[in-house]
Amino acid sequence: MIWLPIFLVAAVGCVSGQETAQTRVASSLSECYSNPNLLNRNNLPPVTMPVLIDIIRKIEDNTTTLNLREITTLLLHSFRQDGIQYHQPENSVASANVLPFAPTFHSFHRNRLLLTRLLPENRLTLSADVLPPVLKCTLHHMLSTTVDTRVRGDESSCSQLSQYRALRTARSGRSISDDVEIMKPSDLLSANKNGKMRQYDPNNDVEFGNMGVGSMSERQVAESTCPLLGGVVDTAWGAVSAGNVIAGIATGAQPQVVNILQLVRDANLNYRNVQQTVNSLFPATLSGDLAEAVLIQGTERGSTSIVIGTAGGWNSTQARRHFMLQNRINVEMTDPEIRGGIDGFVLGSNVVAQLGVASNMKLSQLLDMYYSPRNGALDPNLRACNRRESLNRFVTNEQLISETNAFAAALDTNMPLRGTIIGGLDQLITSAVTNLRSYTNDVLNDLNCAASLSQSNNFRLKTNLYIVLDSSWQYTTVMPAIAYLVDSIEVGKFGSSITLLSAFDGSIVVNTTYSPADFYAEYNSTTHAAMTAGVNFETSLTNIKLMMQQSLANESLRNYVGGNSSVLLYLINGNLPVTDRVWEQANEINNTIPDLRVLYATTTNQFDALWPFVRDMYRDIFTVSLNSVGTGVDTAMAPILQRIQSVGRRIINPTCGFLFNGGSSGARTFDDYVEPGYVNYYRISPNYFFGNNDNRRIRVSRTSSGIGGLVVCHSRSSEQPRRDNSTVLIEGSENNPITCQTLNSGNVEIGLQYLCDGWDNTNSCPPFYMSVESDTGLTAGGLSSASAACTDPNCRFPYNIRYSIQVDELGCFNGASSITASFLILLSALYLTLYSS
Ligand SMILES: *[C@@H]1O[C@H](CO)[C@@H](O)[C@H](O)[C@H]1NC(C)=O
Ligand SMILES: *[C@@H]1O[C@H](CO)[C@@H](O)[C@H](O)[C@H]1NC(C)=O
Ligand SMILES: *[C@@H]1O[C@H](CO)[C@@H](O)[C@H](O)[C@H]1NC(C)=O
Ligand SMILES: *[C@@H]1O[C@H](CO)[C@@H](O)[C@H](O)[C@H]1NC(C)=O
Ligand SMILES: *[C@@H]1O[C@H](CO)[C@@H](O)[C@H](O)[C@H]1NC(C)=O
Ligand SMILES: *[C@@H]1O[C@H](CO)[C@@H](O)[C@H](O)[C@H]1NC(C)=O
Ligand SMILES: *[C@@H]1O[C@H](CO)[C@@H](O)[C@H](O)[C@H]1NC(C)=O
Ligand SMILES: *[C@@H]1O[C@H](CO)[C@@H](O)[C@H](O)[C@H]1NC(C)=O
User: Which stretch is the leader sequence (predicted)?
Assistant: First the structure.
């Protein structure tokens, strides 16, 4: 890799232009600290990687002319302000003119150097209304590292956090009380007099005037035993400090070698025997946190062994918002900062090469690929699950030591400390680097790649999920279950959508959205409390039926041929009151919206009442048990998720609408995309092929290059037909439930003749199932341009493979064949007379 020495413009003057580098809360972010709704994190979306990616996509979609380098720089300059802490006003009187928050935590200083000296200057601005305040503040909190030491009152529950318990055993036996160290104000005052505190030029760009005083009074108030760490984002591979990740990508994409004299504050360097330059990627990631740990632990605790790694955990299993640290000291290089530092370093070390083969790669794509269970960031080695190996592979201890040495010397002149290191810096840094390595290898125990592979599916959902919600649920009880589904079905621009409806009347609570961030911003406790109380099965189902019919009619107008599946889930706290007329509505849904899968989940077992309303009584009815602390959500919801996952993507004849009175589809096509090694499943309802047509068929053809080949399989009995050893590639065998064909050049053609021979009606004739599978995943090692063939804006990943599905002469067959319908009504009337009331 080539490192471009760039003489930084920042050396003179332009520092003042950067609001987030100043010692006050940036004015663009101040509403995050003044508006009480925004101040309460429980009102903001959960801090997860999919939400971060979603917010970044919103920015990318608004600034289509900016490339990855510009976007990362823009993000850091506009939204990252590290170290903001609350300060109780002296006399506890709040003033309307004062925000009781300021960037006083140590992390501020490193980030200030990053923004002013290590990153290119930012000349871009984002129009203020691209992100609504709630998402702007969420993004700010995701990127900005700080520690909130205020006592909250829930400290006794900290030790209950599951992640804590697992890690605590692996940590050193020192108890928290041994570590507590309350500094007396008098100590600090004398320290100041003795000249231990560094003095700063008051005319300098950053003022430190009240720094010591601020920290002092902060020390006097009680501190939480498990402070909250900010700037943390949840991933399946451990919580990460997203600021470090983005900073690594930004500095890696714009490599600079910076003379450390440009980083020192008074042009006086106290340590001479260090290398004279730093590569900006190091201070932005690993060296930045290592240097902080060395300087703070070295001066405050006189340690000779630097503690690296502080465990912590989320106080909820779903909808994660609060990350609590296990300890209140040695919080300079916590677990999320280590992970973020490594991830940022690894991504930063590779991004130039990746842009070489995928020049249009977006930041959102890079993050999406790295934090995914398979394939990775254009190379399966570049995955979060491979973090430990990556650290060992991409950086040596010698490199880390010399880079950290140089940066620590520079940071020392910028950061007010409670002591002065007068010798032995090298030894402290060696200790920190050694401990980082051993902590990462021996203690950080995140999901590895083998487990990621075995625990993940090799298919992705594109499901329009409608949840019909009973407002008698407590928000805190049902929110984690909804969040579990939103996250698991991958609500997102290239994935699924979510719509929240009311079980009172089927009205819209949260409109259909493909944005998890928007969904979480709209569905808060206020929205939930504003829902009309009560559950009315008949009214809600009737209105939902009308809405779904309307959307089929809309799809007709848009000539929609398929690509998404749709599932309706009733989520009811108690019983769903069944009335006589409900069955008619369910029956109409059956006959007019054949691809909508309706599922019922209730807290009481209602199988006996609900079985006549579903398509598959053994698989579509669930009993769920949820609790107000949100534990066990995955166990409770997993069966429902699996059912949602089993519903294939629809392929339809758009001329039918919901009346099924249209004509033949003629020839129509749609495009779809598959990731290497993944498979997409489709389902065609018998309503589109019940009567025979000799020309009816499906054609699949590949329309992009990319890695590996495609295999097309179909079946009448297997919902998810795959090629495996039991289903050899022999077409047309009657006894073989699954038929597969390799898609070479040209296309795969499947005739759809006489598929319902012997069946009485569309409800009894089985659907036609089909899959399109990519036969190989990405191979580890080399970057290749084949892994970046997809530049189409509809490609979630650069390595997606595009194909098109053409339907020929699909028909329209109404499910309400008169004889069966009236027979069923009769049956149901009988049933209701016998069992209701
Ligand atoms: C970006 O957002 C602004 C403000 O919402 C809007 O006026 C502008 O049209 C958007 N630009 C693009 C390219 O979407
Ligand atoms: C997590 O802790 C925060 C801060 O104390 C609190 O506001 C929130 O309600 C807690 N969440 C859960 C699910 O306990
Ligand atoms: C299907 O999903 C895609 C995104 O996954 C979305 O853009 C499209 O609008 C959806 N179509 C329908 C009819 O819901
Ligand atoms: C939901 O979204 C659709 C399409 O954008 C819009 O026409 C409709 O008015 C919205 N409904 C509500 C209740 O917001
Ligand atoms: C809840 O969401 C609604 C709709 O987005 C919003 O208007 C309201 O301010 C939010 N409430 C809180 C307390 O954040
Ligand atoms: C159907 O389209 C109309 C007009 O575009 C829109 O107002 C309505 O919300 C749509 N309905 C559904 C269910 O998508
Ligand atoms: C809906 O169709 C399924 C068969 O697909 C049938 O078992 C069920 O009884 C039908 N339900 C109603 C309400 O018509
Ligand atoms: C399928 O066949 C391949 C090659 O013949 C073999 O290596 C593999 O173990 C088989 N898999 C199963 C599940 O039998």
Answer: 1-17
Q: Give CA–CA dist 180/175, Å, rounded.
A: 9
Encode pLDDT of 13-41 as tens digits. Answer: 333 347 888 889 999 999 999 999 999 99
Conformational region of residue 83, where left means phi above 0, alpha means psi within -120 to 50, and beta covers everything else: left
Phi, psi of 256 (to 5 degrees): -140, 140
Helical segments of 269-334, H only:
281-284, 286-300
Q: Residue 694: CB within 6 Å of ligand 1?
A: no
277-279 β-sheet, strand order:
4-5, 256-259, 277-279
Q: How remote is the CA of residue 521 from the centroid of ligand 5, in Å?
A: 7
The backbone torsions φ and ψ at residue 229, rounded to the nearest 5 degrees and listed phi first, read: -100, 125
Q: Using CA atoms, how far apart are residues 542 and 564, in angstroms rounded to an integer?
A: 23
Question: Tokens 């594109």 correspond to what residue?
Answer: 462
pLDDT for the residue numbered 22: 86
Ligand 5 lined by 43 (C-beta under 6 Å) = yes
Q: Using a 6 Å cutoff on CB, does residue 586 contact ligand 7?
A: yes
Mean pLDDT computed over 410-434: 90
User: In this model, does residue 167 exceed pLDDT 80?
Assistant: no
**Residue 571 and residue 478 in contact, taking contact as beta carbons nearer than 8 Å:** yes
Structure tokens at 415: 């950061």
Q: Cα–Cα distance between 473 and 476 in angstroms, integer?
A: 8
Q: Counting ligands in written order, which one lies closest to the CA of residue 526?
A: 5
Distances (CA, A) of 822 to 133, 584, 592, 611, 658: 55, 11, 16, 19, 20
Instruction: Give the predicted TM-score (pTM) of the model.
Output: 0.89
pLDDT at 273: 80
Summarize pLDDT for 637-686 with one digit per residue, the tens: 999 999 999 999 999 999 999 999 889 999 999 999 999 999 999 999 99
Q: How far is the CA of 43 from the centre of ligand 4 (A)?
A: 23
Q: Which CATH superfamily is domain 667-811 in?
A: GOLD domain (2.60.120.680)
User: Max CA-CA distance within the chain?
Assistant: 98
Whether the predicted pLDDT of 214 surpasses 80: no
Terminal CA-CA length for the chain? 77
Q: Where does residue 150 rank: exposed (0-12), middle (13-18), buried (19+ CB within 10 A)?
A: middle
**Is the beta carbon of 29 within 6 A of some atom in ligand 7?**
no
Q: Which of 608, 614, 539 is nearest to 575 (CA)?
A: 608
β-pairing, 323-325 with 256-259?
unpaired
Domain boundaries, the chain: 15-206+220-454, 463-645, 667-811
Instruction: Identify the residue whose C-alpha is closest to ligand 6 atom 2.
Output: 554
Token reading at 15? 């520092």
Q: What pLDDT is attached to residue 385?
A: 97
Give the CATH number of domain 463-645.
3.40.50.410
Q: Sign of torsion, CA 294 296 297 302?
A: positive
462 lines ligand 3 (CB under 6 A): yes
Q: How far is the CA of 133 from the centre of ligand 4 (A)?
A: 22
Expressed in angstroms and rounded, the spacing between residue 546 Cα and the centre of ligand 6 is 11
For residue 410, what are the contacts with CB-CB under 8 A and spacing of at least 6? Answer: 113, 260, 263, 264, 269, 278
Cβ–ligand 3 contact at 560 (below 6 Å): yes
Distance 77 CA to ligand 4 centre (A): 35
CA 824 / ligand 7 centre spacing (Å): 9
**Ligand 7 and 763: CB distance under 6 A:** yes
User: Are 463-645 and 667-811 in the same CATH fold?
Assistant: no
What pLDDT, on a 0 to 100 scale, did the predictor assign at position 90?
Answer: 74
Provide residues with CB under 6 Å of ligand 4: 508, 511
